[in-house]
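Data availability excerpt. The first of two example chains:
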Amino acid sequence: MLKTLVVIPTYIEAENIADILRRVRAAAPSVDILVVDDNSPDGTADLARAAGEELGQVGVLVRPGKGGLGVAYRAGFETGFERGYEVLVQMDADFSHPPEKLPELLQRIDEGADVAIGSRYVPGGSTPHWPFRRRALSRIGNYYASRMLGLQVNDATAGFRAYRSVILQQLESASTRATGYGFQVELNYRAHRLGATIVEVPITFNDRVRGVSKMSWHIIGEAMTLVTWWGVRDRVFKRFPGGARRQRRFPTPAPAPTEAVAAAVPVAPDDAKADVASAGATSPTAASNGNGASTPPLAVQGDTPS
């Protein structure tokens, strides 16, 4: 199995974080997990650390404050690039993305796909209990994005995805602009322009049961504004004509991560000791996790003083 990191961004997810980590570990025992928390005031990061001690191979990166979904994922991807992960997965902490579908997404990557999307809008996918208004808005938004940008996917706004790291590096994910859910469309768009092989896996998308939704009209407006600009730019200014042939090239090395980011992922035993000393914490013993012969545990440290 390819070396995989699952990135889970959080903000005020104390009611969900421990359970989602346990279900991810049960569904995919060999993956590493990185929780990127936007300094949640409800103690989400502390609960993630506690669950990580129980489960193993769970890192927690605490950012200074709420910066948005795209900012959190960029920090998580930077970590994955630096530590040599071959596959990066993004998913929510509120159970809207079923962890049990992780093995199928990863299998599609193993079979040769560059991007595997957990899709609501392919045969077998569903959005149970959604009212007509919400289902209609989601469908219209997806149709608009696909038509404006020429995307050949059914669920352009889906947030449950697996990527080959080399593709994300070629997409220059660190330079993306969107901070909210428009980030999903932006990555889809860049992958499409690159000529990446994108597949969709049907999922059942469930509404959150616990906690508060982060969706807002500002987030929706940002996504629609960016989609409109990208579509107009490509058609009128022809700055980024579509249909480019895929070019597999050696990825440009990612920029060096911050000290906090580097401490949130597996490190060599000697380095791990130094990180533990500086963070004032202890780490469990290294153990085999299926990503390699033996992987040291995830060190846990944040951007802000504990």
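And the second chain:
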Amino acid sequence: MKTAKQCERYFKGAANHCRIDILVLVSKNPDMTVEGIADTLGKNIKTVSEHTRRLVHAGLLNKKYQGRHVIHSLSPYGKRFVPFIKSFLHS
């Protein structure tokens, strides 16, 4: 069972509409680059890069380096958190 402090980290990590969009997008399209996320969402690459950094720090995204590209995928906690977010989006 998670402590309240651990839960707070996940909620703070996702506490932005852009980060929620990124989590939902990466859940549908795993292994996306920052450029791919920015293009799909129509956002600035620097903005998306900062939001993905915060999501990685919160433990909701994983990143993997492939040459010059950084590939993002949901972490195990991210995979559990996205359905929770979707339940609010569709209610």
